[in-house]
């Protein structure tokens, strides 16, 4: 299914499922809708290395101020004036439409609050939360004195840790869930800072300032192999025991990142001189890695993604990849190919 077909399907599903609750007219591109309705948009021209793509043009990140809006569901779908869905960002499937369709057959009961609400969108994926969602606080900080509450998800431990590190009091958090439907006096909606999968120095500095508090290097993490944690998308290393046994000869230490809080993950990656890992969200922690680090990312030829290569490029970290033959949705690592990569280091 292509982009246009997906949008048509989404529109039809929304119209069919939600017309009894909201007389929805249209799903709108955020910026077009905001300008057309002459709503307040604050652009951040001072963040030099940040941009979004719009019709092949670069535009600056922004915060939109909306009245008479509802924030709906765990993924923060925003409905303006009861009839217009505004998608945050520019990727329709990242805006929360599909999750909303999946979980709802009617809109949750509305809760009105006579207060202002800050919205940064949401994701329970570590990479998307750290790189695309959390840095939106850089934009909302300008309005901190005007925002009474924040619509936030604290279900995942990394989300809760981030919010605590940002010193957002618990009594200022409106928890997001599938039953969320908040109508606030005014909603401050932050865009992302970069297109999906991209990163810049501003985002990296922001995350380091929050999480990399301890820059004491730990010797046993000099060479690390990152195992896949709790996997939703497959990409499991099917011969991982064999791989770990092989890498121990080179003194690589095997780790699962979801065993640690984010601050500890940051210190581990900062300590590492050599990192080997199958593609997965744990490599988000490359934002904390030392510039002298060397990285080998392992893919199945069935799925290759440049998001962690992009982090290494910005940080000027030496990056290589090993592409293997797929085993369905999983990865089988050829030890001879792995040995050749390591020996080149």
Can you give a write-up of this model?
It is a single chain. With 345 residues, the protein is α/β, with parallel strands linked by helices. The chain has two domains: 3-209, no CATH class; 212-344, Flavodoxin domain (Rossmann fold). 29% of the residues lie in helices and 25% in strands. It has eleven helices and 19 strands. It has helices at residues 3-18, 30-36, 97-103, 126-133, 137-140, 157-165, 201-211, 240-248, 262-271, 307-315, 335-344, and strands at 26-29, 40-43, 52-54, 57-59, 62-66, 69-72, 77-80, 84-87, 111-119, 149-152, 173-175, 181-190, 223-226, 253-255, 274-278, 294-300, 318-324, 326-327, 330-331. The strands form four sheets. Strands 1, 2, 5, 6, 7, 8, 9, 10, 11 and 12 form a ten-stranded mixed β-sheet that branches. It has a five-stranded parallel β-sheet with strand order 14-13-15-16-17, with helices on both faces. The protein has a two-stranded antiparallel ribbon with strand order 3-4. The model is unreliable at 17-28 and 88-105 (pLDDT under 50).
């Amino acid at each position: 299914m292509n982009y246009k077909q997906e949008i048509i399907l989404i529109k039809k599903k929304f119209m069919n499922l939600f017309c009894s609750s909201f007389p929805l007219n249209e799903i709108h591109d955020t910026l077009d809708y905001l300008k057309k309705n002459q709503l307040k948009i604050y652009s951040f021209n001072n963040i030099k290395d940040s941009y979004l793509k719009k019709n092949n043009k670069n535009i600056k990140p922004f915060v939109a101020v909306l009245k008479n809006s509802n924030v709906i569901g765990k993924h923060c779908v925003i409905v303006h004036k009861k009839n217009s869905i505004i998608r945050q960002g520019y990727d329709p499937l990242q805006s929360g439409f599909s999750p909303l369709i999946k979980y709802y057959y009617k809109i949750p009961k509305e809760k009105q609050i006579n207060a202002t609400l800050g919205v940064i969108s949401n994701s329970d994926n570590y990479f998307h939360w750290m790189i695309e969602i959390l840095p939106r606080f850089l934009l909302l900080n300008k309005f901190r004195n005007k925002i009474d509450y924040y619509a936030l998800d604290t279900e995942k431990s990394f989300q809760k840790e981030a919010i605590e590190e940002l010193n957002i009091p618990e009594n200022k958090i409106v928890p997001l869930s599938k039953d969320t439907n908040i109508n606030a006096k005014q909603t401050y909606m932050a865009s992302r800072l970069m297109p999906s999968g991209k990163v810049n120095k501003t985002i990296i500095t922001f995350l380091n300032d929050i999480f990399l508090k301890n820059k004491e290097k730990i010797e046993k993490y000099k060479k690390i192999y990152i195992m896949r944690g709790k996997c939703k998308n497959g990409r499991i290393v099917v011969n991982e025991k064999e791989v770990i046994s092989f890498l121990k000869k080179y003194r690589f230490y095997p780790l699962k990142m979801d065993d640690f809080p984010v601050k500890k993950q940051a210190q581990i990656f900062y300590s590492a001189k050599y990192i080997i890992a199958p593609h997965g969200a744990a490599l988000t922690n490359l934002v904390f890695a030392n510039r002298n680090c060397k990285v080998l990312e392992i893919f199945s030829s069935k799925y290759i993604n440049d998001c962690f290569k992009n982090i290494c490029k910005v940080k000027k970290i030496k990056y290589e990849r090993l592409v293997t033959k797929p085993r369905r949705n999983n990865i089988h690592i050829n030890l001879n190919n792995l040995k050749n990569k390591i020996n080149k280091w």
